[in-house]
Queue: 2 jobs
Job 1
Amino acid sequence: MKKTIPLQKRGIPASRLVLGCMGFGGGWNRNPVTADDLKQAHAAVETALAAGITMFDHADIYAYGKAEQVFGQVLRERPGLREQMVLQSKCGIRFDEGTGRPARYDFSAEHILSSVDGILSRLGVESLDILLLHRPDPLMEPEEVADAFSKLKQAGKVKGFGVSNMSPAQIRFLQSHLDAPLLVNQLELNLAKLDWLEAGVLVNQQEGAEVSFPEGTIEFCWMEQIQIQAWSPLAKGVFTGREPENQPESVRLTAALVREMAERKGTAPEAIVLAWLMRHPAGIQPVLGTIRPERIQASAEALQVSLSREEWYSLYVSSRGRKMP
Ligand SMILES: NC(=O)c1ccc[n+]([C@@H]2O[C@H](COP(=O)([O-])OP(=O)(O)OC[C@H]3O[C@@H](n4cnc5c(N)ncnc54)[C@H](OP(=O)(O)O)[C@@H]3O)[C@@H](O)[C@H]2O)c1
């Protein structure tokens, strides 16, 4: 049975997989966007759409704004495309901007509002479907965020809001000042970084003291119908073909198991690693970081893969490198 994910339950036509756009625009440098960057962006968007991936994840900072800029160029050259997409971006991280001020987080209303204007202008669209606050800002004043959100909503610039890298306590605190539910929490979740599972499995165990993931985050988001999105879902390729330099034995063994399972199921290793995340009953939405057409296609095969409980556990146990407690 196909599971409906929280965003879909709220009537947002989100695809099961999201294409993350951090790699668009030629990388983290201040060079202008090139014709090759544009060609690569067209190919990635086209491959994603053909594979049924219609949701795209941006941030104002990606490639110093060039990721949104090149994506906007694609949209301008292909009118009608925007209507087929769910567009998400993020704000709240600032670099030093060459002014001698430190790189910092900024949830001030002034920054949120001006950041969204920048996002819309680079993407060349009238509105964003979802805006996320990128990383928790210790100086956040929730009333100010609420004010910025309602101005953006009233102006038709943003339809819905969410967060990234936040704990249940942080979400509850912010939510208590908002009049609409937060829709998304984007977190680093993958088969290499297992703390999101270990936090639940190691309750009442000494080993659990070393886990760095706020206990109950998954359950809280699931209960509140907050879409959990996984950033770095491919774990940067360590299980799917990237040379395992200086990786622990468990990574090598898990990569071999992923390969063997992919062969047995007649699919790509990427599909196994993503299907493993999607097998979790909370309905996790992986945000892919590749812009290579062949890897996007291989990833999209995850939509056809189902893993048994035993297969899911064999990958988990292999990656954790020891038996379940
Ligand atoms: N909210 C946050 O704080 C946050 C933080 C980071 C990222 N994100 C979002 O999450 C998305 C995904 O993040 P991510 O890029 O870290 O995720 P990822 O999908 O785990 O990793 C993709 C990266 O790994 C490389 N890779 C994958 N398989 C490979 C292989 N077999 N061999 C060599 N390289 C391989 C890709 O290179 P190729 O491009 O060559 O395939 C790409 O650079 C981003 O685009 C962004 O939208 C959010």
Job 2
Amino acid sequence: MNTRVLVVDDDDAHRGMLRMMLRSWGYEVDEAGDGDAAVEAVRAQSYDAVLTDVRMARMDGIHALKGILAYNPALPVILMTAYSSVETAVEALRLGAFDYLIKPLDFEALRQCLQKAIEQSRCSVENRELRRQLTEAAGPEILGHSPAVEELRAIIATVAPTEATVLINGESGTGKELVARALHMASERASRPLVTVNCAALAENLLESELFGHERGAFTGADKRREGRFVQADGGTLFLDEIGEMPLALQAKLLRALQQGEVQRVGSDKPLTVDVRVIAATNRNLQIEVAEKRFREDLYFRLNVINIEVPPLRRRPEDIPLLAAHFLQRYAERNRKSIKGFSPQALDIMLRYDWPGNVRELENAVERAAILCTGDRITPRELPQAVARAADAPLPAEQPAEQGDGSLAGLKLDDVERRAIEETLRQTGDNKSEAARRLGITRATLHNKLRKYGLE
Ligand SMILES: Nc1ncnc2c1ncn2[C@@H]1O[C@H](COP(=O)(O)OP(=O)(O)OP(=O)(O)O)[C@@H](O)[C@H]1O
Ligand SMILES: [Mg+2]
């Protein structure tokens, strides 16, 4: 990783000399001719240290120091001055300067000072990163205070310690993998591996050998025996992501493995006993897949011992501010920026947008905004266009009360009907003919209902 230093001095010759010196020490160097330009530069680009003159014609070093630290308090700033004024030095250190050097510079002292400054700033970034990893090792934190998320946490706490197979349902980006990890980390198997297989990522034959392993020579290219993911997960948890994409023939083999607790490497007839807990996830509605003969019913029942539904973000907009603030903190830190938060307009737009890509889309939008942001708050300008367009949309209508247990009892029939229509349209990617077919009504009836519920 390159180390980048910003040199601030209004004396061109002195600045040029410092640039050459620092480059010869292996640093990348940017320059600014006054304090204003220095603050601008720090907002636009991440630095490992700033070296600034104190006496400058426009905005002096002390003001620049304040501006820089207001923006990024962790950035080490080293001041240089020709006048050894104790008061200025004390003032600078009190304001948070890293150190204070007297001109003419002692280059060896400068070299050491820069080195120390950079080490220290790296350490503090690394420490925070380590601390984050440690807390994640205790199980990922599932953020949110909406009733839906509170309930999600409660189900995880109840189900995790059991050996039950779990099927996690939810749209893409809602946090299915996060839930799977939380289940594993809160289980007795936490000290054993959590192995993930994405069933959509591989062709059928490769997926089979990925899951069950293969013998040497089992097929062209199998030049070594290979253990499958089942065996790697022995004693732990196997997370089968996107299970809805698994080819039918393989579903049969998976079912056998689950029922018998045994797997066979491709090209072998010797079964291996494995002790694996399976968690599966999908963004498809497996009941529909079963009805349409794309998913084995027996496997569906075997997997769906416990069902966990991860709700889409638009059903719990109250979680948006908390999640956004969490991601902003992460990405501001990674990009070494000190951004205080979101402008009210930006937050308002984020609340209006419906986030079809759910939490992942929100995370990506915030990361992008953190990188683009040059001020101390995220404004609508830094939000992706699709999100910003939500500025014109009305605030989301109050959602019908949702029963915690997924039961429909007590809901208004109109609400049930509306939800069935909305959800089916989403699942069919807004294909009205297909949605009407699945709902068991004609297209004309669907249109009438769309009009009735204002869903057109
Ligand atoms: N409640 C939450 N609190 C904190 N982070 C979350 C939450 N939900 C999701 N995330 C984060 O959002 C991102 C997407 O989550 P995840 O990968 O688990 O979604 P997914 O449902 O598996 O998506 P896909 O269907 O696309 O695979 C991850 O970075 C995850 O850490
Ligand atoms: Mg996933």
